[in-house]
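Course exercise 7: structure representation. Students receive a sequence record and must write out the corresponding structure in token form. The form below is the worked example handed out in class, using DNA ligase (ATP) (827 residues). Read each field label carefully; the graders check that inputs and outputs are placed in the correct fields and that the protein name is recorded exactly as given.

STUDENT ID: A-19
EXERCISE PROTEIN: DNA ligase (ATP)
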Amino acid sequence: MASDSPKAAPRNAETAERLARYFEKRDFTRTPEPRKAGDPEGLALRYSMQKHDASRTHFDLRLEWNGALLSWAVTKGPSLRTSQKRLAVRTEDHPVSYLDFEGAIPEDNYGAGTVMLWDIGHWRPLEPLEKGLKKGHIHFALHGRRLTGGWHLVRMDGKRRGDKRSGKSDRENWLLIKEEDEAAGERDPIRRYRRSVSTNRTFREIAAGADLLPLVERAKPLPRFRKVQLATLGDSLVDGEAWWHEMKFDGYRALVALGKGGTKIYTRNGHDWSDKFEALLPDFASLNCDSALIDGEIVAGAGMSGFSDLQKAIKAGGPFTFYAFDLLERDGTALRSRPLTGRRAALEEVFTDVPPLGAVQLSPIITENASEAFEAVCAARGEGLIAKRRDAAYQGRRTRDWIKVKCTRRDEFVVVGWQKSDKKSRPFSSLVLAAHRDDTLTYVGKVGTGFDADLLEELASTMKPLARKTAPLTVPKAEARGVQWITPKLVAEVTYAEFTADGRVRHAVFEGLRADKPAADVELGGDTMAEDGRVEIAGLSVSHPERVVYPKADLTKRRVAEYYEVIADRMLEACADRPLSLVRLPTGLDGDRFFQKHAGTGFPDALKTVEIEEKDGNKELYMYVTDAAGLVGAVQMGTLEFHVWGSRRDRLDRPDRLVFDLDPDEGLAFADVKRAAFDLRERLDGFGLPCWPMVTGGKGVHLVVPLRRIAEWEAAKHYAQTFASLMAQEDPKRYTAELPKARRKGRVFIDWLRNQRGATSIAPFSLRAREGAPAAVPVAWDELDTLKSAQAFPLDAALERSWKDLTLPKPVGLSRTLIERLEEAAG
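STUDENT ANSWER:
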């Protein structure tokens, strides 16, 4: 992310100075070009590209920045080929009002010729812009209707013609280069797009002053609204070839109807919100159909994300992005009874001509490694994933053919009042929340954070007409004091840590109002009203101790906390002082599942934090434990599984182990995994790297190579990848080192990816979030040979295990000599 703020308002004097050359060059009594500076949009930076039929046809790139438009004349126009560098001559800054200019500049005027608005949208610097302008390299992303993805502007070296009067260059040559991404390719956008992006006119029609033409004319009638299919909340990702996964987006569900008469956008309940998302409507013009009914989600666009950003975008009129994930009708033919795979194929045909990474795009499908994708989504603070059955028809109701798995707890609640504030500057201190349970409106607490000054005033104005004297529900007297009640019509979206023992939202944060969902539809899940009573374990207070978290094994939260208290002496030998990630299931296997990488608010102090710099340069708080209280503190927050780094806190860049995860294809028996473990052991021994085995409590076996801390992560990753590839090369019928599941048919995947900075693997003696509460347990080699499953040690059996029963190899230094021996063997 760039550090420069696009919202910073420039000083008028600075803007005037930047625009002086533009005004000096033009006689506004003879040219229709804009003479007013125009106002910055504020929410997102705008971009346009104009095709200019002057003495020599060229394309003018305009990037909004600090109250004006940075401008370059791209002589041959943009190319989507990364190998083609297009000359871009820096010209005078233009006023913001020039952004969407289209018209004919008369002869004998500066720049005489016809100007076509060829593309328009938004842009964002991917690195600090002011720094890029100085060093001569601007890295940016375009969010246009025709040009999208990443781009570079690189200033050319060499002397440039100077302005003797000012001493400044009047010709600054740059190169415009497309970045390698999904939007790059062989297509020529100049040949493809010959008409105006806004008026659909040619150069000749613009010069003649012809009327505006519709962007597209569809022949089939506009489809009517249909009830949308809804996902059922699940506790885990769904494995198997019968399913695929998609992103759970943080926005508004939308049904888009295309046909004769234009485009309409409906909410999930059938309300016409075309006016709210008007800025998005032109982006549907490139879809390949005479009519269509498309299901999808609208989120904030131009690099913005999150529900609060979407609320701001709606007020500002954009920018937006629409992710399409289903097709109900096309060209008058109903598709709802077809399987998901068939509907998706038809949807992809509709999107054939749509620019990748644009404002209208397809929802990505995750067909492999859903767990890794889920971890990445949660680490990026995303919503989660939705599993969809491939062969299922589309049903306008909630079904288990779509199952959503969320990273964090986030729900809708009914606003039933506001808590009066004792501060004059604040119209209220918090909102009072409720939801329906068994057809009864039930009080669930208050939310007092997530508001800025403008939002406080806006909400107060919205609630004022709904004020009433009596409470619309039953609330304890102590919590009803100072509350102004309102008629329960507003729905708030709220993130929160959990529900307390008395059924109140804990650490709630307001995200925004939802106008697309009626208050009567807001219901409490079955896990919100928990049992009372706390117990103290390892010196920490554990709430809901009798909550059953492993239903089939009938194991409670208390039993899990006690397990980690007892096993702590053995577990900490392997995972103390390592950054870790948690798999949290606050209500057990039948409830929500969250993968948590960074420290959360409200966590016990025993769960310690360390600040770590990530790949993008940002610093985040990670968790680690040093004692039993830390483990139990994580259990108090709903943790069942602990996953740890391969390095410790004092030397994060020096791994002290390699981990090879032997992950079998579904058709293989555990005997095949054991055979693989012994084969890899022998091969590793031959290269001077002894290892010890651990059954994971899942499907496979981990082989752990203890390392002296002399090599860095790149060396460890390189060695692990090379070794895994060598094994696959020597016996390709049994092994693969490649990630895609399609390559794993009948093979064991040697997962080497855990050997890189920030990657995690299951901690020794950690329980797994699987029925039966199996644990990951280190074993002796002769014992491994006798085991029948990787889930051989349920909770009670794991408690009987000890490191003392094992003979572990001594750590080995991953020296240059060892690496070269492996490289020589791998060829």
